[in-house]
Amino acid sequence: MITLTRRHLLGTTAAGLAAVARTAAADPAEVKIALLVPLSGAWGRFGVTMREGAELGVRDVNAQGGVKALGGAKLKLMVFDAGDSAEKAKEAAQRMVADQPDLVAASGAYLSTFTLAATEVTERAELPMLTLSYSDLITNRGFRYVFQTSSRGDDQANESIPALLKMAEQATGKRPQTVGIITDNTGASISFVKPLRDSNGEKFGLKIVVNETFTPPLADATQLIQKVRAARPDMLIMPVTVISDAKQLIEKMNEFGIGRGRLPTICSGIAVADFDMQKNMNPALLDGLMTVVANWDAKGEDQIQAKFKAETHEPWMTQNGISTYGDMWIIKAALEKAGKADRHAVADALRTLDITDGPAMFFPGHRIEFDSKGLRENAGLVIVQWQKGTPITVYPPELAVAAPIWPKH
Amino acid sequence: MMSYVAPADAPSVEDIFPPEAAWRSLMPILAVLLCWGAAAFAITNSYYLLLMTMVPVWAAFGLSWNLFSGYSGLISFGHAAFFGLGAYFVTLAFIVFGLTPWLGIPIAGLLGAVAALLIGLPTFRLRGHYFALAMLAYPLALLSIFEWLGYEEVTLPMKREAGATWMQFADYHVYVFLALALLGGAMLLTRAVERSRLGLALVAIRQNEPAAEAAGIDTLRRKLQALSLSGGLAALTGGFYAVILLVVTPDSVFGMLVSAQALTLAMFGGVGSVWGPIIGAVILIPLSELLQAKLGAVIPGIQGVVYGLAIVAVILLAREGLFWRVKDLLRRPAAQAMPLAPAATPPPAPPPRSEATDAMPLLEVTGPLLEVTGLSRAFGGLHAVQDVSFSVRSGEILGVIGPNGAGKTTLFNLLNGFVRPDAGAVLLRGQNILGQQPNRICRAGIGRTFQVVRPFARMTVADNVRAGAHVHGASEAEARALARAALVRTGIAGQARMLASQLTNLQLRQMELARALAGSPDLLLLDEPLAGLGAGEIEVLIDVVRRIAADGVTIVIIEHTLHAMVRLVDRFIVLDHGTVLATGSPTEVTQNPAVIEAYLGKAWAEHA
User: Fold this and answer.
1) Residue B332 domain flag
2) Does A298 have pLDDT greater than 80?
3) Whether the predicted pLDDT of B9 surpasses 80
4) pLDDT at position A40, please?
5) Which residue in chain A is spatially nearest to B302 when comparing CA positions?
6) CB contact, 8 Å: A239 with chain B?
7) Domain residues for B413?
8) Which of A97, A117, A142 sits opposite B247 (nearest CB)?
9) Which residues of B touch A86 (CB under 8 A)?
10) Which of B45, B246, B251 minimises the CB distance to A120?
């Protein structure tokens, strides 16, 4: 009995050692990267699209020969659920860096609150983290291992309003003179209307004729839209982050005869261009509605979009799908530049990266270069407009798949 | 007033309140903290160290909720208000004034304590569900205010040099030890409150706030004290939470889920004990995180379902929480040995007062103890008590009888301050006590019992009585001596160490009498003390009441059991429709046709 046990034990140990040796020797060419996004809770839907984008990205990188500088090493994606709170996001990030010490880079964590909490961990672990979140806090903390691929909320406003005014002038021959503002009181929305409000519109040569803020969830949109109807602004800035609020406002606008693009309406963020908008209301009512986002399905990405749609059955990629797909290629490019699977080397490579092809094609501005804070320079923005039931890129021209429709009064 | 001398063979104070060495309750606390710290030493994985930090943090927050709601029974849905204020104070003080969290966290604690007073003062005007819902409003309001102020996302700046000065450590072990220090402090605070008069007062409030007030407890002051301690601890914990998480958003510190977390942990583990919230945190926090880690990326959302089911299962199996369930299981075999071995032989009862004694001059009467004149109170159109005047002589037993709805209990409520009269005067030893709070009237010397006995079920009989003794007992020793005397006088000293929930109906009545007696009242108002007792039990209780009266306590008693009353009381007043129908000796009153008519109807009166 005793001998049997001992022999058995010895055998197992030997086999175990052999197995360890085999893994170490036979598979040198696997580089672990992580995706930390909400997969459960209120933001789970967005995280799922990001995972789909990342998975497709990793598969494409590997199918096209992996990381050539590392002898064709394959990327291996580790996925972590950031949950539905800052605390859960931080715990997930801690688990990620503690359990996977050989990660070289990560991408996440959708909501800026989660990104802020998670990067407190990755910064201390010196793990480079790419993010598509908008908050200006992310790259203003003196961190060295965070890389923001999206332009920040206030920059988007400063950049998009002049672009929209120009768009209007081109379409109608007349520059809009008055603007209405209806915004919810979430951080992203408030920072989007801030440049307009701070200068009372003067900075953009506009006169603010309606200026309303509400707290989600909106109980009744009638009063807000009544005010807009009465003031008849030339355009309406309406950043809304909750889909049900957007639906109410848009349906009410239609009721009052200023919907369906008759009053040019510009939102901010991806909520109003989400799949759920189309599912929850008559898509015809959405026609003409615009929104300013950091990235979107653009011209020249047809192949990837087609593959993404076929695999995931999602109707379009959204910023989440395309940016996260692009992140995988940025990490691959950094690995090529670093020449070794080491997080510090990858971070150094990201800091000095300057490319205008390959992964750069998946981001507005078509250039990947991070400034000293980690913010992508000239990150630019995308204006998306609902046309015939689909939100499509209409600005900037080099990414636009169709011309913007600005109503001629 | 300790005129009563207990017989020599009665259980001693030490028998009734077995001296408990402080180390017996301190040791488990120290042991848990040391084991936790030692385990942390052995761990190097930063993720597990983070979890080992979060568990004590949430346990401390659970304890802060428990300190107020657990003991007082007033459910607060709004403890996130204090937690969030602490978190935001520490963060903003760091950013704006460069104040290190080492100072910021203690100041946050003070801020929380002050905020609790400001919140408590208006909110304690509400009771029950209304109180709970009103508390919910504070964190929600603060959430909106902080959003409006533009603090949607605030982060604690990273200090790359001299991190320790800013409570920032590269070694995660330090956070575990800090969290343990916080938890240890919270446990010691809870233990201190539990053993103090405040703790006893809170438990009394939880069982029955009016009864507590009638027993001489200033309930508003006690509630404010408790909420203030609790709010301070919650804010302290919130401040430390900000240091751990480094990111503060209105939702993560003022959100509904934060308040709910405190409730869930305490209710799961066991409300009203030092250990409940800790048991809750030790089980639920890692469980939820483990489910998130294992299932979150596989079947998103399933972790919430499993977590919810676990809580539902425990609540179904252990309604008061795990701690009490386990304690009950452990206690059951020992319960038999609980009663003190030699049941105290009650002192011989004085001879029944008869008509004959009534005819004799009453012992050393020195004018009325209580003088009631023109007392009236109407509820809408119903005149519950109308122009009632009578006096109570020192040392007598006065019976108050009358048909249902005659206004007897309302009369008691007027006398002890529960209800304010519309008109009239009540003089106790010549001093007007009208309009005073019940606890003041109790201190002035009027004790009372209730129609429905309200025991403090989870407390021993001795502690139930001790709660009443705090009215006058200046020191704890004196309170214990008073409680012991009251227990002996009412004949339940033998059950002193049993839980109130284990008593028979008769024993409960005796205990309630003892509780009222422990406050050394000059005048005792007994509201139907014989209700629900069998014939033999009635005799026992009557003997007890007689004995108390013989010791010089004046008694006013409401009772329906007339045949018992006739043998007990010196004098009756008869109420009907809120007015005094008759007064007089038992014989006079039972033969008064008006009384017979009021009780039995006109036909009976004519027949008689």
Assistant:
1) no
2) yes
3) no
4) 84
5) A40
6) no
7) 365-445+521-607
8) A117
9) 245, 247, 249, 252
10) B246
Whether A6 has a pLDDT exceeding 70, the answer reads no
Contact state of B247 with A120 under an 8 Å Cβ cutoff: yes
Residue B365 predicted with pLDDT over 80: no
Assess A143–B contact: CB distance below 8 Å, yes or no.
yes
User: In order of start, what are the domains of chain A with their CATH numbers?
Assistant: 26-151+300-378 (3.40.50.2300), 154-293+383-395 (3.40.50.2300)
Structure token digits, residue B593? 């046709």
CA B251 to chain CA mean position, Å: 33
- Considering only CB atoms, A137 lies closest to which of B153, B257, B296, namely B153
Residues B44 and B155 in one domain: yes
Same domain, yes or no: B488 and B505: yes
Q: Which amino acid is at B205?
A: I
On chain B, the residues whose CB falls within 8 A of the CB of A79 are 297
Kindly report each contact of residues B581-587 with a partner whose C-beta sits within 8 Å and lies 24 or more positions away, as own/partner.
B581/B402, B583/B390, B585/B355, B585/B358, B586/B355, B586/B358, B586/B399, B587/B355
Polymer length in residues for chain A = 409
- Residue pLDDT, tens place only, B370-416: 999 999 999 888 888 999 999 999 889 999 988 888 888 899 999 98
CA–CA separation, A266 and A258 (whole Å): 13
Q: Alpha helices of B270-392 — where are they, by DSSP H? A: 276-295, 302-317, 322-335, 355-359
State the pLDDT at residue A259: 86
Q: Which among A80, A90, A215 is the nearest to B144, CB-wise?
A: A215
Question: Mean pLDDT for chain B?
Answer: 86
Q: 3-class DSSP state for residue B375?
A: strand
B467 and B547 in a single domain? The answer is no
Spatial separation of the C-alpha atoms in residues A48 and B517, rounded to whole Å: 69
Q: Output the pLDDT for position B603.
A: 64
- Residue in A closest to B169 by C-alpha: A124
The nearest CA of chain B is from the CA of A91 a distance in Å of 7
Out of A83, A187, A215, the one facing B153 most closely (by C-beta) is: A187
Instruction: Quick: pLDDT tens for B489-526.
Output: 898 888 888 888 888 989 999 998 998 898 889 999 99
ipTM entry: 0.84
Cβ–Cβ of A48/B300 closer than 8 Å?
Answer: yes
Report the range out of B161-170, B220-229, B517-526 with the highest average pLDDT.
B220-229
pLDDT at B331 exceeding the cut of 90: no
Interchain proximity B152–A187, CB inside 8 Å: yes
**Would you call A95 an interface residue with chain B, using a CB distance cutoff of 8 Å?**
yes
The label of the residue with tokens 């029974």 reads B73
Q: Taking the alpha carbons of A39, A40, A44, A49 in that order, is the dihedral positive or negative?
A: positive
Domain count, chain B: 3
Q: Do A94 and B50 touch (CB under 8 A)?
A: yes
